[in-house]
Amino acid sequence: MFKFLKKDNKTAFHAVAKGNLIPINKVEDNVFSEKMLGDGFAVQPASSEVFAPVKGKIVSVFPTKHAITMTTDSGLEILVHMGIDTVELKGAPFEIFVKEGQTVTPETKMANMDLDELAKTDTTSTIVVVITNMDAVKKMADVTEKTVNASEEVLTVEV
């Protein structure tokens, strides 16, 4: 009864790229794998296109273009970090298509990553998606390693 009054408290997360979905604890960086910034998942990309993981609003694009932050309508704060130790590349392998304040969906292409350039610099291309305000999360399923297509739903988070 009165289901129309009940606020939807679930947020669907989608793969940010075509590739291999992995749990965050398998990321080759302790800050992410030990969940120091929060929990989430990662994709080892097989293509250069990077899409939004959720429906939400862009909060910031780092000057080095390696990371984008966003928020969802349900209040989740999301960090999309492209590659490991890519801040040192000063934006060179990234092309950004979104701007602060823009509303995005999982079909919105946020960036291109030059995977060949990352390989030349011996930089890991894994894209990490982190919920940075885990105190807002009531329930989150485990991520199972598998091959995914960009924008494919991979996780539901209850807030």
TrEMBL record:
Entry-linked Gene3D superfamilies: Glucose Permease (Domain IIA)
Q: Where in the cell is it found?
A: Cell membrane; Cytoplasm
Kindly list the organism's lineage. Bacteria, Bacillati, Bacillota, Bacilli, Lactobacillales
Q: Give the way it sits in the membrane.
A: Multi-pass membrane protein
Query: Which Gene Ontology molecular-function terms are recorded?
Result: kinase activity
Kindly give the InterPro entries that the UniProt entry links to this protein. Dup_hybrid_motif, PTS_EIIA_1_perm, PTS_EIIA_component
Question: According to its record, what are the GO cellular component terms?
Answer: cytoplasm; plasma membrane
**Source species of the chain:** Vagococcus allomyrinae
Stored PROSITE patterns:
PTS_EIIA_TYPE_1, PTS_EIIA_TYPE_1_HIS
PTS EIIA type-1 domain residues are: 29-133
Identify this protein by name.
Answer: PTS glucose transporter subunit IIA
Pfam families on file: PTS_EIIA_1 (PF00358)
Q: Does the keyword Lipid biosynthesis apply?
A: no
